[in-house]
Design goal:
Blueprint: E1 4-8, H1 9-19, E2 20-23, E3 30-32, E4 34-39, H2 49-55, E5 62-64, H3 68-81, E6 87-92, H4 96-99, H5 102-111, E7 115-121, E8 155-158, H6 165-177, E9 184-190, H7 191-195, E10 197-201, E11 208-209, H8 219-230, E12 235-239, H9 241-245, H10 249-259, E13 263-265, E14 280-283, H11 290-298, E15 301-305, H12 311-314, E16 325-329, H13 332-335, E17 341-344, H14 347-358, H15 365-386, H16 399-408, E18 417-421, H17 426-433, E19 442-444, H18 453-464, E20 469-475, H19 476-481, H20 485-491, E21 497-502, H21 507-515, H22 540-546, E22 550-554, H23 557-569, E23 574-579, H24 604-620
Parallel strand pairs: 2-11, 4-5, 4-6, 6-7, 7-9, 8-9, 12-13, 12-15, 13-14, 15-16, 16-17, 18-19, 18-20, 20-21, 21-23, 22-23
Antiparallel strand pairs: 1-10, 2-3
């Protein structure tokens, strides 16, 4: 009996990933590690990868999409919804099909999310050079457009001989499933190598369970951290995405309750603690709550759990610039960003060990009591905003009122809804105002804040969580960036509810432009260079219907609530569009965010904005009292 099997490179790759299993956290059953492969075929992958996928279509489903970036977003969202325990692969042709994946690769890299990218590549033989869609580098004959993936991949390999899979695939899976390394993996596949055969060991394809490693904390790190916390009188926890990915929500809640320490959240960490928990302060930072930001500004110890402390969380390092930070992170690179003490470990293991070391320590009662009062005051503010049914002075509704209508339409508790968003004004409004009780009920891509992620990401979320109602909220600008996966959602019977807020342009950046002293320019459609026919009036509902969805345009908040009930009862993707005010936002909460303002300008408004900017820099740097 032979111990080898002769397969093409593509066949071996697909057979290998199809055999991998992982254990479902809810049922304990073994399930495929890869939920499927998104594919758009072209001459760089249809003959090799395409034939291999066809042979495994029953054990490893192949999903056709309409845009390479979109299908990669869907795959990334699928992994995020599974808290990185399951994932997808994505294959494209060479040239534009491959480079369309680069933005998604960067998004996955920034957000520490796994996706296996399999772009086709040029011929290793070089016999037909230059092949259709090939980029030629005049100084380096080994370069192809796939080299663009190198800086946006956690692991990159170009497979130039079929036997290289024997080392490349285990390395790739290690990166995809290691919490500290996690991110996109790119295996560039030259189209001739895809079709070449090799005698692979049969054992290479035996089904195996992939185990997700958790790093325990070092005892001396825990001891130092506990000593620092005991000395604190005003500690605050900042919970990031690592709490969710580390399945540490219960550990976080137990830690906070046992030691009386309030908790605030990042965009990625929202939902780590229920919105109505007494120690929940709400979000931190630029789009944060007044409660969280007030207590962060007075804290004498920040405990950052599973967050990379990006500028929206820290107020561009102004919010708690001079507060010592204890950073708990499975990734050593991210742990160092606190510039203080760090514990490089899994969030659950670290919190449990730290709690045991702290023993009976509790934050002073006055601090815990104050945090409870501040958190409740913020929840009262949120209630007032989202309960509003009628905009003031006959104006168009704004995001806060729309968020309230969407949440009121849920007959059950908010545990069944998952809201998906990524860019524009909505991330700030949703972070402040969306109320979720369960980890994963809030799905925001804000590491890369990529316009166009929303609908494609919603598709991936629905594929991962078919039993949940997935509500995609986005602006007209993001809709126009990428909407083609509406058709994919209809084809796959992956129902989405899509709420489009039409403020006639890029309202968020229009406001930022004016806040920096600039004149309204090239953001709202009415402020753009136009021909004699003027700016278009876009019928988003008609467009969505053309892609196979049910859709309608509503006039007001009451109409939106009624439409949401129809959408929930519908049997396929349902889009609702509503006109919104581009100027109104939630005034409550928030803090400074650094956006550089020109030193020289002909506009007085820019001079004033520059002066304010320089004052903020001095305050941040400690040159004057903040």
């Amino acid at each position: 009996m032979s111990d080898t099997v002769r397969l093409t490179c593509a066949q071996a790759l697909i057979r290998y990933i199809a055999a991998l299993r992982t254990r479902d956290d809810d049922t304990g059953e073994l399930v495929p590690l890869f939920g499927g492969v998104f594919a758009i075929f072209g001459h760089g992958n249809v003959a090799g990868i395409g034939e291999a996928l066809h042979a495994h279509r029953d054990s490893l489903p192949t999903y056709r999409a309409h845009n390479e970036q979109g299908m990669a977003h869907a795959a990334i969202a699928y992994a995020k919804s599974h808290m990185r325990r399951r994932m997808m692969a994505v294959t494209s042709s060479i040239g534009p099909g491959a480079t369309n994946l680069v933005t998604a690769a960067a998004l996955a890299h920034v957000n520490r999310l796994p996706v296996l990218l399999l772009p086709g590549d040029i011929f290793v033989s070089r016999a037909p050079d230059p092949v259709l869609q090939q980029l030629e580098d005049f100084q380096d004959g080994t370069v192809s457009v796939n080299d663009c993936f190198r800086p946006v991949s956690r692991y990159f390999d170009r497979i130039v001989a079929p036997e290289q899979l024997l080392t490349a695939l285990p390395r790739a899976i290690r990166v995809l499933t290691d919490a500290a390394l996690c991110g996109p993996v790119t295996l560039a596949l030259p189209q001739d190598v895809q079709t070449q055969a090799y005698d692979y060991p049969v054992s290479f394809f035996e089904p195996r369970e992939v185990r997700f490693r958790t790093a325990p904390p070092a005892n001396d790190d825990v001891e130092r951290a506990a000593e620092a916390i005991r000395a604190a009188e005003r500690p605050v926890i900042v919970a990031g995405g690592g709490v969710l990915y580390g399945r540490a929500s219960l550990a976080l809640r137990d830690f906070a309750e046992r030691h009386g320490i309030p908790v605030c959240e990042t965009q990625a960490g929202k939902g780590a603690l229920p919105w109505n928990h007494p120690l929940q302060l709400g979000p931190a930072g630029v789009s944060g709550s007044s409660a969280a930001n007030a207590l962060l500004a007075e804290a004498d110890r920040i405990i950052a759990v599973g967050t990379r402390l990006q500028d929206f969380t820290t107020g561009s390092r102004s919010l708690f610039a001079h507060v010592p930070i204890l950073s708990i992170n499975v990734n050593g690179y991210d742990a160092l960003k606190g510039e203080g003490l760090d514990i490089v470990a899994d969030a659950t293991l670290a919190l449990d060990a730290l709690s045991a070391q702290l023993d009976s320590y509790r934050a002073p009662d006055r601090w815990t009591s104050r945090s409870r009062d501040a958190g409740q005051a913020w929840r009262d503010v949120v209630d007032r905003i989202v309960d509003a049914r009628t905009p003031p002075d006959g104006r168009l509704p704004y995001d806060g009122e729309i968020i309230g209508a969407v949440q009121r339409s849920s007959a059950a508790s908010t545990t069944k809804d998952i809201v998906v968003c990524a860019a524009g004004t909505l991330p700030a409004e949703l972070e402040k105002l969306w109320r979720t009780e369960t980890p994963g009920g809030y799905h925001m891509e804000y590491g890369y804040s990529c316009m166009g992620y929303e609908i494609a990401g919603g598709l991936g979320v629905k594929m991962a969580r078919p039993d949940r109602e997935v509500i995609v909220m986005l602006g007209d600008g993001s809709y126009l960036m990428m909407n083609s996966e509406i058709a994919t959602s209809v084809m796959l019977d992956a129902k989405l509810i899509i709420v489009v807020l039409d403020n006639r342009g890029y309202g968020c950046i229009n406001r930022l432009q004016q806040a920096c002293g600039g004149a309204p320019f090239n953001n709202l459609l009415d402020d753009c260079l136009q021909g004699p026919h003027g700016a278009p009036v876009i019928d988003f509902a008609a467009h969505a219907r053309a892609l196979g969805a049910i859709a309608e345009h509503v006039a007001d908040i009451a109409g939106l609530e009624a439409a949401m009930h129809r959408a929930r009862a519908a049997d396929r993707t349902y889009l609702i569009c509503i006109d919104t005010d581009p100027a109104r936002t939630t005034d409550e909460g928030g803090t400074w965010w650094e956006v550089a303002v020109p030193e020289v300008s002909m506009r007085d408004a820019v001079h004033d904005a520059r002066a304010s900017y320089e004052s903020a820099l001095k305050a941040r740097n400690g040159q004057v009292k903040a």
